[in-house]
Amino acid sequence: MEWKPDKVNDLPLYKQISNYLESCILNGEWPSGSRLPSERNLAKTFRVNRSTINSAFEELKSSGLVQSIVGVGTVVSKNVWENDQNRTPNWDRFVKEGFYLSNNPINQMIYQLIQTEEKIINFGIGELHADLLPMKLMENVHRSMKLDGDLGYQHIQGNIKLREVISTHMKQYRNITASASSILITSGAQQAIHLIIQCLLCPGDSVANENPSYAYSLPIFHSDGLNTHFLDVQDEGIDPEQIIDLYKKHRIKMIFLNPIHQNPTGTTLNLERRKKVMEICNKYGIAIIEDDPYSLLTYDDEKMYSLKSMDTNGLVLYISSLSKIISSGLRIGWISGPQPVIQRLADVKQQIDFGHSNFSQWYATALLESPYFNEHIIELRRGLKNKRDLIVEAFKHELHQDIRFIVPNGGIHLWCESNHKTINDQLLFNDAIKRGVIFAPGNTLGSQHNFFRFTYSRPEMNTIANGIHRFAEALKASIKK
Amino acid sequence: MEWKPDKVNDLPLYKQISNYLESCILNGEWPSGSRLPSERNLAKTFRVNRSTINSAFEELKSSGLVQSIVGVGTVVSKNVWENDQNRTPNWDRFVKEGFYLSNNPINQMIYQLIQTEEKIINFGIGELHADLLPMKLMENVHRSMKLDGDLGYQHIQGNIKLREVISTHMKQYRNITASASSILITSGAQQAIHLIIQCLLCPGDSVANENPSYAYSLPIFHSDGLNTHFLDVQDEGIDPEQIIDLYKKHRIKMIFLNPIHQNPTGTTLNLERRKKVMEICNKYGIAIIEDDPYSLLTYDDEKMYSLKSMDTNGLVLYISSLSKIISSGLRIGWISGPQPVIQRLADVKQQIDFGHSNFSQWYATALLESPYFNEHIIELRRGLKNKRDLIVEAFKHELHQDIRFIVPNGGIHLWCESNHKTINDQLLFNDAIKRGVIFAPGNTLGSQHNFFRFTYSRPEMNTIANGIHRFAEALKASIKK
Hints:
The structure is a homodimer of 481-residue chains.
Chain A: H1 13-26, H2 39-46, H3 50-62, E1 66-69, E2 73-76, H4 91-96, H5 105-112, E3 121-122, H6 135-144, H7 160-174, E4 183-186, H8 188-200, E5 206-211, E6 227-234, E7 237-238, H9 240-250, E8 254-257, H10 271-284, E9 287-291, E10 316-321, E11 333-336, H11 339-353, H12 358-369, H13 373-399, E12 403-405, E13 413-418, H14 425-434, E14 437-438, E15 440-441, E16 451-455, H15 464-480
Parallel strand pairs in A: 3-14, 5-6, 5-8, 8-9, 9-10
Antiparallel strand pairs in A: 1-2, 4-11, 6-7, 10-11, 12-13, 13-16, 15-16
Helix pairs in contact in A: 1-3, 2-3, 7-12, 8-11, 9-10, 13-15, 14-15
């Protein structure tokens, strides 16, 4: 709800609000029988006192548009429609049905706060702050771009120029050989994962995820059809032997891994384990979905080679994106793997959204082709390392006796565990927001409670220390309780 | 497959091709056991003679990489991998599974030809040719655009500025009152339809579609879970009484309509029928999904008001897009309807693709806000009317005794029926492609055979007559058979 009352308007705030709600009701935006948001939520949305909302509701009640129902809330009246025989579609039932589960309420709240008010310091969203984006490079690309390309639908696997540039990029930066024909452009890694699950698996199939993992936070892994099992992430990544156990017990067909600078733990599957994973999956014919958003973001000079770079057997479907190395707003990701699989995924992507915006594909092509791209990656690593140092410093300073964490040597996440086992994660999260800081509670990512993910790429440099200070205060307050 | 052999290279073509295929096999792009495309298809893809592909295959066979299996084709050998104990994941089974059906093979072929070679005249894809796009306006927008906006993830309903501009646009051009909060930005109308089906319906639900319709061509309507029934489209659109029949027999919960300049028939549900549809759906509580891509494209001055513009009851989920009025490459569509429904759809869109590219949202905002937008729409209508006149003229000239059609007074499609009942649609389609013209066979859109859709917005002005001439020759040849 983005409309806001106008505080310099002559009309009293409550009246502006009741007028707005009335127009929404009369447009059908709040159909008869539907429940309005709570007074508390509306007060937050419109940035007014709760008493103002209360007055607006009274106004609507007196005109008969809404009524209070005990135990339900404020509901749009049935009798506002001239003809009593009319029936509104049962939207409430529609909303509760369908294939997809809803997001976890904590994640819903985090996504609502994506465009954070300035006073909130946001460690909750996995993306780069503008201070890490290649703004100058983008402006150059923008200025030199001519809009003379094809403005119609693209090839169903995505713009051919972009796929060729990604093929070159993968060779150069990731030691992966993949022709443009084996690449499908997706709306970030997010869509890649959904396409794979919906096109290649069917109800009753068993798969394995890392635990904790970003994938855990995706409701699709918890939907009815899929049997999702877990591979525990340790300091050196998953234990490959666990794959064999899961295969023998559950005949897992597919495993989802984020081997390098894992989200959320920041750990990397060491080389020996990576080889072992390939060997095991080769032996049992288990497909690997490798999500690799971070391998370019290693802070030291060690090159991190993905499972895909070791794959000559068509074992791995490799997912990556430009979200964590250029900008999440481009919404450019890709999948690379066996051509018959890529063609199947492309056929379904055509059905679902008829491909990706040409505009962002042109920008992505120009950015990856730019001779300054490499320089940007070097600067980005440096910037992330600085932020990592700041957050590590801040945690040591504020909470050195209260939390433990592994210092990440790449990527964008810091994963920590509180030494106090009695904390209520939900209360801590709510209290932290009140104090102006957001993080991702570990249980939304599959861990036991008491763990937290801090994405240090998201806040500005000069707010990191303050953000951790606020978190420390919230944590200390919750320990005392 | 976009790689092509280099005809000026010293290496013989067959050798270049066998080297390329070998590298794809060794990368795992064609895993062991997978079937290579047929010689015929590869010859087409690489634009060489079939004998060249045959030589390349012989080369691969002699090195043991592939083998011929009678009744199957050319298959990647199992023994190319050093270790015989390795098992490739059963990609073939993966590709055949999953929730989504494949596209109809004819549609797959049409989508493969999206970026048509110049010599093919393409009436098969529902989009505008560059000669109808507001190129000057776009260039102005591009030049005056500053990349200082937020480059991160957007609000999960889409960029707020764009939603506000769409809200204003709907008021001004469509007589629809909808606040920005009741709008969700989607990747074209295509994604809107998929979100609605997957979020609001569940297996066993009954819905109704127009027949013929674009929706018919979407495999999701034929997937197992949904019971899809049909409302026959006549010259004045569907018969509202049929909705009552379907409700009584099948308890349909939702109907999908494209009431104005319908795809594919070009017909418009007349005002009286539109009112009747609203009355019936109000009475039975049936939700209406109104797909309205064309209402701005009426050639005469009559304003076409959508069902949504008559809806005060929250009965209609309204879908539209910029694909047919600005450019399909923007991939900007939207859904407007009851806020709780929009919020549910937005929550799932976040899960699926984490929102839409910022870049195309900025362009869309600037284009809709431009004072020249109205002028563009007027020019677009004029351009479409000219193309309509040309195609009507061409049909009358070439085939006046062989086909019947309704002259469309808006939109982009012409629907025609052959007077000869013995034609084989598939053979006619294939023959037409050989002669350099593509159209959409009616049976892919749900009609009986013998019907054809010609999207006259897609070819250039000066190719329309020639395209219909080619079609006429193909049709006459198929009548003779």
